[in-house]
Amino acid sequence: MSVRDALTARAPGGLRDRRGRMLHDLRISVMDRCNFRCPYCMPRETFHETYRFLGSRERLSFDEIVRLARLLVRLGVRKLRLTGGEPLLRPNLTDLIGDLTAIEGIEDVALTTNGTLLAKYAFELRAAGLQRVTVSLDSLDPQVFMRMSGGFGGLEEALAGIEQAARAGLGPIKVNAVVQRGVNDHTVLDLLERFRGTGVIVRFIEYMDVGNRNHWRRDAVVPSRELLARIGARWPLEPLQPAYRGEVAERYGFTDGAGEVGFISSVTQPFCGDCTRARLSSDGVLYTCLFATQGMPLRDRLRSGASDEDLLDALRALWRARADNYSEQRQEARAAEGARKVEMFYIGG
Ligand code: SAM
Ligand code: SF4
Ligand code: SF4
């Protein structure tokens, strides 16, 4: 049985979207706020002191998140990733992790964080059942890091977070770096130098045109092919098989056995054909694409007594109607842009 067939067999009813894709991953934004202002995600000029973030009643409660996760497991979801904003700013996050990991059918629960609060929470997160963390860290150069975090610094805290996460057993730890030409592309080899041979997997992400406010320009994107050539010239690389179907990162191993490096190339090599992800915003809107202009608001339905069956019908219909493939038609989509896209901090990466 192929991996795809195996996945279908596990998804009752074999729910598929209009392009034949199953629902397998759910990314949950547990917090819209962040203690950074990375210019590519939450630029300061928009997300300033008086920006109105969600109030605590506007965010989904843990019970509401768990209820939706349970329903989505019935439609095929097997993997959960908690994200944000900065997820570790959500009070008592470990309680939610405990509840999510206990859901029957969930095979993997991970977290994406900027790492600043990770040293404090790593052991608690592991004890609550979290399996893995991904830490976003764009550069080891303190000045570059400062610029890319929007002036917040926090490099030492993020590195301490990675170390503590390793001690707590939250591995394999992945480090995600967004690469922007002229900003941090000259520091990618340093990042690899530091983590090669440690078991930490560095992955380079092409700078994406998420949201409406990050001043994206195509010429600031460093194509993964270009990075691959530069890295391969320093440390010979060989392609590795995807760890599972639908894996977004292309993997390469260092031929000297010092681990691997990944590339997430959604601009130059889109992977919409295998995209099995849905995203739940902190205020309970379910999106079927990172670049969506609209999602399905669920919070009011949850709060006005909708039954599980009603919710399941709505969720099934949403997935069946899905045809998203933004990255495959970025050029046309941007040219036709009228509709506003959802912001990344709001639905998570
Ligand atoms: N605050 C957490 C963090 O930074 O890891 C979680 C949320 S953040 C939105 C999730 C991921 O999205 C991060 O790895 C971040 O680098 C990535 N991201 C944000 N804006 C991006 C952009 N314009 N292009 C590519 N990746 C982006
Ligand atoms: Fe915050 Fe993460 Fe966005 Fe940076 S990428 S502003 S850390 S949510
Ligand atoms: Fe999935 Fe949308 Fe990204 Fe394509 S553009 S891979 S459909 S999230």
Give the SSE layout.
Layout: H1 3-10, E1 25-31, H2 62-74, E2 79-84, H3 93-101, E3 108-113, H4 118-127, E4 132-136, H5 142-148, H6 155-168, E5 174-179, H7 188-195, E6 201-206, H8 224-234, E7 237-239, E8 250-254, E9 260-264, E10 277-280, E11 285-287, E12 296-297, H9 299-303, H10 308-320, H11 330-335, H12 344-347
Parallel strand pairs: 1-2, 1-10, 2-3, 3-4, 4-5, 5-6, 6-9
Antiparallel strand pairs: 7-8, 8-9, 10-11, 11-12
Helix pairs in contact: 2-3, 4-6
The structure holds S-adenosylmethionine and iron/sulfur cluster (2 copies).
Pattern of helices and strands: HEHEHEHEHHEHEHEEEEEEHHHH
Radius of gyration: 19 Å
Biggest sheet strand order reads 7-8-9-6-5-4-3-2-1-10-11-12
Could you say how many structural domains there are in total?
Answer: 1
What class do helices, strands and sheet pairing give? alpha/beta
Structure summarized in a few sentences:
The protein is built from twelve helices and twelve strands. With 349 residues, the chain is α/β, with parallel strands linked by helices. It binds S-adenosylmethionine and iron/sulfur cluster (SF4) (2 copies).
Question: How would you describe the overall organization of this protein?
Answer:
It is a single chain. This protein has one domain: TIM Barrel, CATH 3.20.20.70. It has a 12-stranded mixed sheet. It is 31% helix and 17% strand. The two termini are 32 Å apart. The chain has 349 residues and is of the alpha/beta class. Helix 2 runs parallel beside helix 3 and helix 4 packs parallel to helix 6. The longest helix has 14 residues. The N terminus is likely disordered. The structure holds S-adenosylmethionine (SAM) and iron/sulfur cluster (SF4) (2 copies).
